[in-house]
Design goal:
424 residues, mainly alpha, three-stranded antiparallel beta sheet, 16 helices
């Protein structure tokens, strides 16, 4: 039946769109599946729905298009679901077209099973979130065992709360986890002393950053999908707002603060590389990446961090370091994502998670609050700090975005041209 086939196509599109796949790959994969089912299709992903326009593949040009849609929001990242759905579409597309009703039914059963897959186990999610936050602390120069333990505790506690609040409002989870980080960080500043304690607040919040959504938004805007790109960016900004609100409220309750000073010394190369590998592994847990294919993104992340470390060591600066590292990450992960059938944005972000300007975002928010409180007594130093943090955020985000999406779009364009020539 037509309805069964279209429902199966929409289910596949939903699994890809809802779980972090780039819009272009959603369109390509869904179109291939529709062709295998005997339909010519146009796929129009939006923020709240996917619109599918279709007609029989053998229909004449004058045959009207039929419309079908499904409600879905691209707010999650589940690399396992994307990978399995893409593998299924590849297998189905390789069969003689159009598929029989039995083959369609079997594909639909498999898609239903993929849809029911659980995310990473609770234990893995909690432990790896804590380890990832502690690894980011090491990358930022934290050497105190006490501080690293507190970072792990704050991040793990936030992860427990996030799982407990699963299914609630989209912004409750980051708000609650950031609130925990603020409370633990503020309390640690009350009972202990040391500049490194600021990272008890910061690095657990770094694990909440919506980097994958920002990359998908950038790719949509670069391809002219302005409505969806702006919606994704708005969603990312709302997550940033929830994180900043939760952290600042937690710090206000415990009378904590974020210092504007950073740690002066860069960690050793081997420690930076190992810590980067742990951070990438933690993102794999957050994004439900299977253990068996985790080694590839870990190696990419280590390579990117080694290049960034060398640039910083030679006085290149954080912006140049982020750009070069992301250029390497974008080139490798654009190829790797196709080979492993994984979403590019989450794979690329996992490799460069520590380069996100989360520290500067949080300090910018804290600085704005301080300026507001000071009112007419705000000093030039306070205003300069706000402007400096804001400028740094903009430059790093631009460097990371361009470094990641330029290789992706060039490689995708080359593959599309090659496939077109092969088809002709």
């Amino acid at each position: 039946m037509v309805t069964d086939r279209i429902a199966c196509i929409l289910r596949a599109a939903t699994l890809l769109h809802a779980n972090g796949q780039t819009t272009q790959r959603v369109i390509e994969a869904t179109t291939r599946l529709a062709r295998a089912f005997g339909y010519e299709a146009m796929v129009l992903p939006q923020w709240d729905l996917i619109l599918l326009r279709f007609r029989p593949w053998s229909a004449e040009a004058s045959t009207p298009w039929l419309d079908a849609s499904v409600h879905v929001r691209p707010t999650s990242v589940d690399m396992n679901k994307v990978s399995q759905t893409t593998h299924l579409i590849d297998r189905v597309s390789a069969l003689p077209s159009p598929l029989t009703e039995e083959e369609v039914s079997r594909a639909d059963v498999e898609l239903t099973a993929i849809q029911a897959l659980k995310p990473s186990s609770f234990i893995r999610f909690v432990i790896m979130t804590g380890l990832g936050a502690a690894a980011l602390g090491l990358i930022f120069g934290v050497t105190s065992y006490l501080t690293l333990t507190l970072i792990f505790f704050a991040a793990a506690l936030g992860a427990i709360l996030r799982r407990a609040l699963a299914g609630e409002n989209l912004f409750v989870q980051p708000l609650a986890a950031a609130l925990i980080a603020g409370l633990v960080g503020g309390a640690s500043q009350y009972f202990f002393a040391g500049m490194q304690l600021q990272f008890v607040d910061i690095t657990p919040c770094m694990m909440l950053m919506p980097g994958a959504h920002i990359l998908n938004a950038s790719l949509d805007l670069a391809r002219g999908r302005l409505t969806l790109g702006i919606a994704r960016f708005t969603y990312s900004l709302m997550i940033f707002l929830a994180i900043c609100t939760g952290l600042l409220v937690g710090l206000a309750i415990t009378n904590g603060s974020l210092t504007d000073r950073t740690l002066p010394d860069q960690v050793t190369l081997w420690l930076d590389i190992v810590s980067a590998g742990i951070a990438v592994a933690s993102l794999g847990a957050l994004y439900s990446l299977p253990w068996r294919i985790l080694i590839a993104p870990i190696l990419v992340g280590m390579l990117c961090h080694a290049s960034r470390w060398l640039i910083l060591e030679n006085g290149g600066g954080v912006v140049l370091g982020a750009f070069v590292a992301c250029l390497i990450a974008g080139t490798i992960t654009a190829i790797l994502a196709r080979y492993l059938k994984l979403p590019f944005a989450s794979l690329a972000f996992g490799a460069v998670v520590s380069m996100m300007p989360g520290i500067f975002v949080l300090k910018l928010a804290s600085g704005l609050i301080e300026v507001y409180r000071a009112d007419i007594h705000a000093t030039l130093a306070m205003l300069t700090s706000v402007v400096s943090n804001g400028t740094t955020i903009f430059l790093i985000v631009m460097a990371m975005t361009l470094g990641l999406i330029i290789p992706k779009m060039l490689i995708d364009g080359w593959i599309e041209r090659r496939n077109t020539v092969t088809f002709l």
